[in-house]
Structure formats: C-alpha cells, structure tokens
# Entry
Amino acid sequence: MRSPRFPLLVALLLIVAAAAYWYFQSQRARNGETIAVYYTKLDGTSLGSTRVSMRPREPGESTAEHLHNQVLYAAVEAVTGPPNDVKAIRFPPGTHVRTVAIDGSTASVDLSKEIDSQAGGSFGEDGEFKALVYTVTGIQGIDAVQVTVDGSRLETLPGGHLELDQPLRRSDW
Amino acid sequence: MSWISRFVVPIGSLAAAALFAAASATPARADAPITALYQGQSIRFSHVASKDGAPAIGVNDPGFTALLRTTDAVLTWKAGERYVLITTSVPTVVSFAIGDRRYDIGPVVLQAAFAPYQRGNEVYLPFNEVLRGLDLALRDDGAVKVLQPQLASLDVRTSRDRVTLLAHGGAPLHPRVVAQSSSTVTYAFDGVGTALAGTRQINSGGVRSLQVATSGTVRAPVTTVTVTLQSGASVHAPQNNGERDVVLAVTAAKASPQTIAEESPTPEPEPSGTENATSPPDGNATPATGPVAVTGVTAQASDMGATVTIEVSGNASFAWHRLRDPDNRFWVDIKNAQLQGPPIDQAAPSPVVSMRARQVDATTVRVALTLGQPNVVSVTPSANGLQIDVRNDQAPDDAARSGSGSIGTVVSSAEQNAALVTPAPPDNASSDSGGSGDSTWKFGPRSDYVPTNPRLIVIDPGHGGSDSGSEHGGLKEADLALDMAKRLRDILIARGWQVKLTRETDVDVYAPNDSPHDELQARVDVANKAGARLFVSVHANAFINSGPYGTTCYISKPEDVPLARMVEAQLAQDGTKDDGVIKSHLYVTYHTRMPAVLVETAFLTNPSDYALLASAAWRQKVAQEIADGIGQYTRAYPVSGQNAQ
# Structure
C-alpha cells in the first residue's frame, strides 16, 4: 500500500515544477530573442550588423507562424536599415516590405515598387540585397530569399545587374 | 524526470494561458471617434476604443491610414501575423506584437499601456505609443485636440572638449537663437512640444547644464533648449542633418591636460583576452586587420542604470576585465585601435562613478570605468562600436571577470577570398603571373570550360539603347562604357587578340525596350555562342549620394577570381580608389561560361571620379590597364595548345 504522503508529494512537485516553468517562461519573455540585422558598409562589400530583439514564441503560436513572424520582422528591419548616423548602403527611400511567405527553407520577400528607383550601377543594388539576404538567412531554417517586387517575380530590376528570378543565398556573395 | 515533464508542460501552458487570460480580462470598450488637427488638417479617427483607460486605434481606421500616409510611414500587418510593424520616415521600425505590452522604437524597448489585441479582422494598437513612434503626441486644450509634433529626443554626446546635442523632431526643426550671452545660449524650436522638459547637469566639454522647457499653446507649441556654458566655451551654429535632425555643438575653451589617473592601488593586469573569454555575440564576426579609430566615448543615464558608448570607426577585437569587489573597476581594451583626441577622465552617471579613456600602448585603447559597487555589466558590440550597459543591480559573486569579442564586419575579405580560391595551386599554374603579388589569388580554380575560340575576347559595354544606365551631369554610363570598350578593343586587337563587342553603337543588344533578362541574356549569348576565351563587361558606377568612389571588379564564379584579381591589380593605378574584387550574383558574370569580370570603373556620382570619367585620357588609361590585366591572366593561364599572349 502506498504511503498517504505520496499524492501530497506529487502535488507539491507539480506546483514547484509549474512555478519553475512559469519563472523560466517569464525570464525568457523578459530577455526575448535577438536577430542580427546586417547592412552593407560603404566599401560596398563588408557587412556590419545591429541586433534587434524579437518576442519569444507565444503559447499557441505554431512553429510555422513563429518562423513567418521572425522573417517578416527581419526583412522589415533589413530594408529599413541601421540608424541614420550609421554609414551604410540603404534601400531607395520609401522601399518597404509588403509581405513575406515561407516555402520550405526559402523566404519570399515582396518589396514595394520603390526598390526600382536605383541610382544605377552595381554598388547600391548589390549592397542592398546582400544585407537583406544575410539578415533573413540568419534566421534558423531559412537559407535562401526569393525577392519579388509589387507581387511579381522579376528577372532583374529595371536597368539592373543582379539576377532576381531565383532565390538568393549567402553563397552568392 | 520524464514523468514530470509530461505534466509540467501542459500545466505550465495552462498556467500561462490563465495568466494571459487574466491579463486580458479588462475588456476593450468602443469609444466615440477622435478628431484631431495635424498640420492644419482635421483627421477623424473612428476605429477607436479604450483599454485599461488608454486609447486604442484600429489599424484599418481610415484616419490612421491617412496619418501614416501623411507622415510617410508604412504599416506592415496582415491577418494571422503577430507583429504589427510601422516603418517611419526616419526610418525606424516601431514594432508591436499582439498580446505583448512590450513595444520597440528602433533599438529602444518600452512598455505600452496595454498589449495590442485583435478584434475580428482588425488589430487595435495603443494609440499614444503609436504616436510616440511617429514622434507625435495627442494634446488637448479643452477646445481642440492636436497631434503635436514632438522634440522626441535630445542625445547628448560628450567628450573632454566638446558637447554635441543631436535633436530629433516629429517635424522639420529650424532652431533659432532667442537669447545668448557669454554664459548661456537658448534655442527655440517652433511648432514642437516635448516630454523631455527638465534640467540635466553635464559639466564637461564646455557645458555646465541643459534645460529643456515648453511654452506656447497646444496648437503652436515652442520648445526651448537652454545651454549653460562653462567659462570660455564657444557655441557653433546649429546644423541640420536632414530636415528633422539638428546638431547643436559647444566646444570647451581648451582641452584639459592629459591627466588620466593611473589605476591604483591595484594595477589593471595585462589583458590576455582569453581568460574566461566569451564568444562574440555573432559567431561570424571576424575582426579586420587594419587599425581603427576610437572616435568618441560617452556616458548616458538609462532606465536600468547607465550606458557607455564607445564609437569605433571599423572592425576590431576587444577584451574586457573587471576587478573584484571592493575594487570595482571595469575596463575594456580595443585592440589595434587609436584614440582620436585627448584622453578622457570625467564623471559619469550613476551607478558609474567615473570614466576614463586613453591609449595604453601603440595599438590598444583602454576605456575604464569605476563603478559604485559590483554592478551587473554587459558589453554589446553595436553598429558603431561597443555599448557597455551598467545596471543598478548587483552582479553575483561568480559573475564572469573577463571576456572578449569583435566589433564590426561579419564577413571579412579574407573569408570571401578563402571561399573562392582553390587551396592548392595546380601544377601547371606555377608560371609567372606577371606579379599580382598575391599567390593565394593567383591560383584560382579552373573550370571545365574549354573555349572553342581561344583567341576571342568578348567585351560588353554596359547598357545602351533604351537603357542609358546611370546619367549624371550630362554624362551617360552607356556612352562611357562604349567608349572605354572600344579603346580596350583596339588595344587587344593590336596585341593579336580577336575581339567582339556585344554592341558597337548606342543600341540595345536584344531589342529596344526589351526586358532586362532578355537584354542581359543576349550579351551572355554573344560570348557563350562564340566560345570566347574571356568576357569583360565595362560599366560606370553610381550611388544615391556623392560619397562612394573607386573602381570595383565584380565576379560570380570561382574561375572569375584570377582574371578579376589581375585586372584589379592593374586598375589599382588608375587614380581612384581600388575597391577590390566583389563577388555577387550579377547576371552577366554568373551566366557566362568563361572567366568573366564586370568592371565598374568609377562613380559618376562622385565629383572626383566624375572628372576622371569625363577625361578621354583617363578612359584610355583604364582601357590600357584592363588590357594589361587580361595579358597577365592569359600568360598565367594559357589555354592548352595556345601560345600565351
């Protein structure tokens, strides 16, 4: 026959475990996750990075939803660029992320049509997409970025140089 | 323990759900529309609610949409997403998350009055916090509500002999000096209010204190910033850095003598950088080898304590150390760095007592802090250097006493090069390459490509026809590229090569107004179908401002590396900066089967580069140097059965 203390012990352990779980969850919520947001420096090739904090995964938020939210945040931050006083290659003014979608390990990032307003030359175009791809592929589970513009897949930007009709990877740089 | 985990997670989830439900228990209540003036126009917000006594705004509200449009802000959210992201015109990302009171304005984490919540297909955001992200505030004088632009931030950057105030506003800032004497200067910012009112002691760099105050009316607010000067300090004229950012600067009478106190009684040990070393926050970080400058060291009070910012001009490694209580000194050594300006020795906001910066040896800059107690300290590389956060909390006894990391570049040129080249040289590649001086680059990998016409080089003048490329000051990239391509052609023909241009006049290679893909593929086809030995595309670069300049060689394939490297080595003498070889996914270099390089000769948008591009003599020089680079390459990498040229 089991000791009458056994249920009490189990209940006590459960309470302690629940309290510990709550504590670690709250700590995690407080600390959050961070992602590196890359930007291309004005030498045209080297990358700098800033870190922005993410929210931890919520109860009820599926893995796919969490990944989508991470990619969206990362892409928006990459296109926005670092603080103004940081010298960086920046996306054309007004460029913003319309939507993102995930297909396997490829993130599709749909940019607004302002991206077409390039200054010309390879310099800006190369630096902008390098920063975007490095940032988004910094998220675990994503290794390629398919860029679309205003909902459409493009071969290159108008008058551009970079091939955009296939996913871009870090290895492209 | 496994039986515990089976119970704990569901119970924990239930507990979390219960807590979440409790936190969300206060129901939101629909409110009457709010009508407010913004820039003289009336905006009606109708999707308005109250939550925990604070206003909420629906993201689909027409007035809110109009406000975002007027302020050049963009909201990103769709049903099913958790984040509601607002990109402001600054640009800064203001991020909200459904169910989370925390919100971020750029790197600053804040707490909202309530967590964003979803009702039907619409998310409701805390209105005051949204407005704060847009550098606005809702003000009410009883008769009218106004969306008042704010003097949103006033960053104070101090050094020993200078104080710089960076003011940022929700409207264009045009400060005017309303009072000035030898001891004070007062600036007025018309049309902006502020929540920054108060006085702050500086006592450094020529400034004793700052006083921020507001006056005027809700509709016509005025914010004043009064700077009380130290004796002999001089005031610089305000400078706009963009419409909404102004720099106010004060210089002290003279720099103080270099009197950095020796760290006593316990000397700081020589940093090893390895003791209990911690990894840099980004595992990819790789310090570069060039010296960097430490351009500023500033300290500011923060919500949690104090933040010390070390501005570093480039890539560097660092190591930090701290002594054991009661000697609560902390220091960080920036390696391979030079301190710009005189040493710093000054008081700092609590819990930091004092802050010092000095050049401890020829290549190391040390920033040392004396703390009030064994406070928690975190060291974080930032975009511009290092951020040291000193919290009011006390660090545990077993807290790390040293660490190290890297600042800046995350992918070094060396890493890129290493990824592109073959580790061991092929046996037959040991001939003289012509002295590129870099054996690592000299022996690039060979592809399986065998040119059917090994004496043919295809030159591609970029753009042309319906696409003129960059245009600046009357010069067109297409014209410049064609001119340089023809000069290069003539030189190569004189050296015995066969040369084909993808275009010989100002035309599209495929068809007028064709797609970019068809146009670029047509250029690739010229080289691939002809079985050419090499492909060289000639361009002129451009950027949105006049800053960048120099020559860059772009490549895509490993076999492009030696060609590009040798061409680049020659172009290094062309009179502008050598920006080296950059790998990218450019269409023409990626899809050509032979070694290829795209040469961006110089920037049309930079005045000195522009002058070079405008010079026929310089264009001839560039053509000569590209030809010389090709010559070096073909001598180093002869095609089997063909004599080197």
